[in-house]
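User: Structure tokens for this complex, please. No commentary.
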Amino acid sequence: MTLLLAVLALVCLVPAVAAVLVRNLIHSALLFVLAWLGLAVFYLAVGAEFIAFAHALVYVGGVSMVVLFAVLLTRPGRVDPLPPPSTQRAIGGVAAVALVASMLGSSIFWTRLPSMEPIPMVSLRRLGELLAGPYLVALLLVGLILTVALIGGLLLAAPRRPSEGGDA
Amino acid sequence: MILAAAPASPADAWLERAPVLLRDALTGWLPDALRPWVAALLSIATILGVFGLLFAYMTLAERKILGRIQNRPGPNRTGPFGLLQPFADAIKALTKEDIVPRAADQVLHFLAPVVLVALSLIGLAVIPFGRNLVAVEMEASVLYFFAAGAATELAIFMAGWASRNKYSLLAAMRALAQLISYEVPLLLSVVPVIVVAGSLSTTDIVAAQGGWAAGLWPHWHALTPWGFSAFAVFMVAALAESNRSPFDLPEAESELIAGHLTEYSGFKYALFFMAEYLGMAALSAMAVTLFLGGWQAPLAVLEFIPSYAWFGVKLLLLLLGFIWIRATFPRLRIDQLTRLSWKFLVPLALVNLINGGVWAATADWTGAAAVVRWFISALGVVVPFIFLARSLSAGYGPRTYRYASP
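Assistant:
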């Protein structure tokens, strides 16, 4: 199990790091898809079947398409050449890495792991009953927030009518 | 996850149990630890063999039927009635040179057909092909199927983008727009089925459609008003998802050469073809499972015919419908395509979701109340359809033909 988790961590982390490092935007988007897929397999490995498939459906099937569409629709800006290496940048890089590493390290090393008692398996039916019962308000609120965000996005992107004037 | 471990019940007829008996005969002599693995490999091999052959003969059937519809014989030179044509095509595809453009993104150009075929195949794992005949049984198998299928357009995008060809890139853009538009009605039309059946498992959904009303009318979802509406939306969205005519905009050979296939040759081209037919077969199989009662026989007296034969008949009928549609309808424009989805199919599917919910809530109505229930459901399908169709076609008066008037 530990070996499987280690392999899965590699499957998630290597594409994620590569996605940040490659200069080709399409490549990095596709690498993100690979990382998301790794996460879905991880959920499957720990027994959360529903979350795994929902994750694959939403991220691999939906979000990836939107990201790729956005990349294709935006005009590539002029290529920014990296500024020449300097001591200042080196110090900045080392400081950033040290800060993140200390933050992550402290939370990883000083968090007490819960005792290994068997986790109750929640059946899909139970999950549905919980979502449609006690958590219904939360679910509806999330839907409302997403709808508001969608309408806001449409308003921002919609072309202004000439009668309104404005700066567009 | 359980690997098809269901034992054959002795009450069934011999033919019904034949596949399970065959599997047990083949794996019975193995040690217990190995048996599930070999059984899994066997089911993979069976699915590959059956659907590979189905793909081969679907291409032939398509060419023959399209030929007959266009008043020509179709392929008839290789073997009797052209029956060896698929194999001739396969040998041709295998021996052709595999050309990769120098400017292409080599890795993605190679990966695209492989990923596409793999993704088209894995959805078939959760389809119950007959009583006890499902390769992988799990709680959320419907979700698994759509999660597997959602990524196929990603592979088409990879193919189009990696070719470094403007036609291919246009095809990639179209494929993305098409997927974003049609994934929504496809999934929305499935939700009422899940609500009514009360399960995300394909075997449970088929089991929920068993039995007959008054001994004659099967309890299939497509034979209820809400189910018929959902089935229609599902099939239109499935047509678009599998990039078939009239939604074959990414390929569009009269506008974009061959779209994302332009820079592919030889066996990779054949793989794209295979993925198209496999995806079509998988979506049709899902439609049979969700709406047409899966492997259930239409009449109780016909139950002596084994369940997998019924599944096959229904699947073939849907696939022939796909071919017929291809021969009949002209291709849509991209704006018509997206408008059809967002302004018509999505609202229809949303209303139908409520309709399905009402149907599920009134499940205990019997006698005269059952008639009222059917009436309410039918009203919930017809009224939104007429309202939407009228409001969308407003302003498009009857067309007058200048030179062809009678």
